[in-house]
Design brief:
This protein is an alpha/beta fold and 542 residues long. It folds into 3 domains: 243 residues, ANL, N-terminal domain (Rossmann fold, 3-Layer(aba) Sandwich), CATH 3.40.50.12780; 154 residues, Rossmann fold (3-Layer(aba) Sandwich); 93 residues, 2-Layer Sandwich (GMP Synthetase, Chain A, domain 3), CATH 3.30.300.30. The strands form 5 sheets. The protein has a 9-stranded mixed β-sheet. The protein has a 7-stranded mixed β-sheet with strand order 7-6-5-3-4-8-9, sandwiched between helices. Helix 4 packs across helix 5. The radius of gyration is 23 Å and the shape is globular.
């Protein structure tokens, strides 16, 4: 049976592609650095690294790891660093020596860091100096022996201030020293294949202890090539400029910006602290960006930052939102301000990450909001609680199969078994539906669903409705116990207009939502808790 979404593919985009063009990511890296040698690969704080320099510096780092730290193929190496020039150099150095990169959020608490380092069995960490305080708190409870520290000014050389390395840590080596030492050392690059492990991407931390999704060279090669084919009409090889503000340790920016656009010969303009919105806007004003990837809260934050509407967006041709649901009100405002549509994508850490992308229908005559259509070589099945496929138009759990899907969770066969169907589909935990026109839509996370008198209420729908209300910056809702209805909706709101009352919000919701979906309680707060990439943390609100 022909998959009902294939008719929505952009013209000339193939439904399947050859995924065996490269034996490992190193093949793709060498082809890229040879092709674009003198062009700028990464920019940060006005400093630039060419493709040739990324090749040379990553080779030196790889040689240091191999010769000085005795790193061999398969060793796990933690990289705990924000968006700086050191990140891609360290990453390619790890990959070229055959290491497995364990991506770590530099904002982690000591507890979270300890769990991840121990779970991944890490003995070498590359860490941002301000994060060394967290490591010092727990290092005695881990097997970490080698510590390489990254300073904000490394490879930038503009005298940028940075917090010092925690004095409790001894035997540390600076990243720049490691590069210098590696310069005079030989590198014997191991033989790598698509089945070799590439990343341990930790996920599920918003619901409890995080698990390491095992992503191979083949998984990432597949997703790069799938994205390349699907978005072929939007790529300008060797000429694109992509703003990279989502953290590079997050799978979305890691695959899309750090890897894909690198291999397309683009200049990645790195934003180290996207929470500093005024500075972010200044970076954009000085960048002729052609591509921007972000999450809903990032788009929303920019739209509410003074001066953003004064940016010259004439070079911008593609904006992609992922990581969390893109709200229609935010997408509409984005298009109004930038004159560029906000295309929503969907994926997870376990799927490298992109499963679907929304570029509208084949002739661009109609654009239906939602997560769009699966990438080439990707199959999606919507299933009920019993694992049976539901009819088109009905909601169920989104299950996915494709070459970008992980092999399982690191050292966790039970969790791996739980997330896979008997016929080999990955169960995402997201409730979705395939509409009559062949477009997929996410309804909500299964675990976030609120049951009001037997009716399913999805927080995304309520939050998207409240986003339309003038004077509201953002909101998040959860279910609370209710003696009459089992559960009721409680809404947390951040308001810009201080005159807005609880009743105003409830009245607004009544206009667009059926009665059982209307919040029973509205609480005004200063800030919605979010993950480092901008996902709402409903668990903390509960």
């Amino acid at each position: 049976m022909l998959q009902p979404w294939l008719k929505n593919y952009p013209d000339g985009v193939n439904h399947t592609i050859d995924l065996n063009r490269y034996t490992s990511l190193v093949d793709l890296f060498k082809q890229t650095t040879t092709k674009y040698q003198k062009q700028t690969a990464y920019t940060n704080f006005g400093a630039e690294l060419s493709f040739e320099q990324v090749d040379e510096l990553s080779r030196n780092f790889s040689a240091f790891l191999q010769n000085k730290l005795n790193i061999v193929k398969g060793d796990r190496i933690a990289l705990m660093c924000p968006n700086t020039l050191c990140f891609p150099v360290a990453m390619w150095g790890i990959i070229r020596v055959g290491g497995v990169q364990v991506n770590v959020n530099p904002m982690y608490t000591p507890r979270e860091l300890q769990h991840q380092l121990n779970d991944a069995q890490v003995d070498t960490i590359i860490i941002f100096s301000p994060s060394t305080r967290m490591l010092a708190d727990i290092i005695d409870n881990t097997s970490v022996k080698n510590i390489i520290t990254v300073d904000l000014d490394d490879l930038v050389n503009k005298g940028l201030p940075c917090a010092p390395v925690d004095e409790r840590l001894t035997n540390t080596v600076s990243f720049t020293d490691a590069l210098t030492q590696g310069q005079s050392l030989a590198l014997i690059e191991p033989t790598l294949c698509q089945n070799n492990l590439l990343f341990l991407q930790y996920t599920g931390g918003t619901t409890g202890l995080s698990k390491g999704a095992m992503l191979s060279h083949g998984n990432l090669i597949a997703n790069i090539l799938q994205y390349q084919e699907f978005s072929k009409h939007h790529i300008n090889y060797g000429k694109d400029v992509v703003i990279t503000a989502i953290p590079m340790y997050h799978i979305f920016a890691l695959m899309a910006n750090t890897l894909s656009y690198f291999t397309f010969g683009a200049n990645n303009v790195l934003v180290t602290n996207p929470r500093d919105m005024p500075s972010f806007v200044e970076v954009w004003k000085n960048t002729s960006a052609t591509i921007f990837t972000g999450v809903n809260t990032l788009f929303n934050g920019l739209l509410h930052t003074p001066g953003f509407d004064q940016v010259d967006f004439s070079s911008l041709k593609l904006s992609i939102g992922g990581g969390a649901a893109v709200q229609q009100a935010v997408a509409d405002k984005w298009q109004q301000v930038t004159d560029v549509r906000l295309h929503e994508g969907y994926g997870l850490s376990e799927t490298s990450p992109i499963l679907t992308l929304n570029f509208g229908n084949s002739d661009q005559s109609e654009y239906i909001a939602g997560i769009g259509t699966p990438l080439p070589n990707t199959d999606i099945s919507i299933r009920d609680e019993a694992g049976i496929s539901v009819n088109q138009g009905e909601s169920g759990e989104l299950c996915a199969k494709g070459p970008q899907v992980m092999s399982g969770y690191w050292n966790n066969t039970e969790a791996t078994k739980e997330c896979m169907t008997t016929d080999g589909y990955f169960k995402t935990g997201d409730v979705a539906m395939l509409d009559a026109k062949g477009f997929f839509h996410i309804v909500d996370r299964k675990k976030d669903m609120i049951n009001v008198s037997g009716f399913n209420v999805y927080p995304n729908e309520i939050e998207a409705e409240v986003a339309k209300m003038l004077g509201i910056l953002e909101s998040a809702c959860i279910g609370i116990e209710d003696s009459k209805t089992g559960e009721a909706v409680k809404l947390f709101v951040v308001k810009e207009d201080l005159t807005i009352t609880e009743q105003d919000v409830i009245d607004f919701c009544r206009q667009g939502l059926t009665a059982y979906k209307v919040p029973k309680q509205v609480i005004f707060i200063d800030e919605i808790p979010k993950s480092s990439v901008g996902k709402l943390l409903r668990r903390e609100l509960r």
